[in-house]
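Budget justification aside, the reviewers requested a transparent look at the raw inputs and outputs of the sequence design task funded under Objective 1. We therefore reproduce one unedited record. The lines immediately below are the structure tokens for a 199-residue chain.
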């Protein structure tokens, strides 16, 4: 199938992918730009998985203070080389994540960072609520699992939908940047500060 160069240009502008990748994606998706975007996203995620074992010891400390001067964020985000750490795209990623943290107040970096006792407490509370409505035990298990996923999406940064694009999570955003920049990227830690909140 012959791909129209204008379609390739449109896909490149929307995704930032290379010409060859755009051509391949459009050929695989019968010229559909929307399907090609999803195809490239999946390809980028699998490429990101391969890079995730590589050491990321460079990077930067991101800092953001909200315009009212009452909320701020510090975070450490790492990549493999100082070259990538100095790129505008890497700095923009750091800023976007800082803005996300200010806007959504996550308590944990990822679901792996949630203490087991907190998860157990949440499960018990969800089960108790479901039992009070008279739900059968099999249904209660599904309700608890669903409510727990919602808890992760609200309280774990990696699971949160990106405030600038609700179609992807923060983890998905990082994977997209890994695919685009060609290096492993690791968000190590963050701290959110708000005037008057207890430490």
């Amino acid at each position: 199938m012959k791909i129209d160069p204008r379609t390739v240009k449109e896909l490149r502008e929307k995704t930032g992918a290379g010409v060859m990748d755009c051509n391949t994606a459009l050929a695989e998706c019968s010229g559909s730009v929307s399907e090609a975007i999803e195809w490239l996203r999946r390809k980028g995620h699998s490429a990101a998985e391969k890079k995730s074992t590589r050491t990321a010891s460079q990077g930067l400390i991101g800092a953001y203070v909200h315009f009212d001067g009452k909320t701020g964020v510090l975070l450490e985000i790492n990549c493999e080389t100082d070259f990538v750490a100095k790129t505008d795209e890497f700095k923009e990623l750091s800023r976007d994540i800082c803005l996300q943290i200010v806007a959504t107040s996550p308590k944990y970096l990822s679901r792996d960072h949630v203490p087991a006792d907190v998860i157990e407490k949440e499960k018990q509370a969800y089960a108790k609520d479901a039992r009070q409505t008279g739900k059968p035990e099999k249904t209660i298990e599904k309700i608890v699992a669903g409510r727990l996923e919602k808890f992760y999406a609200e309280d774990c940064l990696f699971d949160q939908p990106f405030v600038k694009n609700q179609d992807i999570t923060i983890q998905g955003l990082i994977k997209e940047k890994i695919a685009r920049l060609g290096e492993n990227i690791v968000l190590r830690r963050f701290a959110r500060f708000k005037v008057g909140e207890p430490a």
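The chain has eight helices and five strands. The domain at 5-51 is CATH 1.10.8.10 (Helicase, Ruva Protein; domain 3). Computational costs for records of this kind are itemized in the attached budget.
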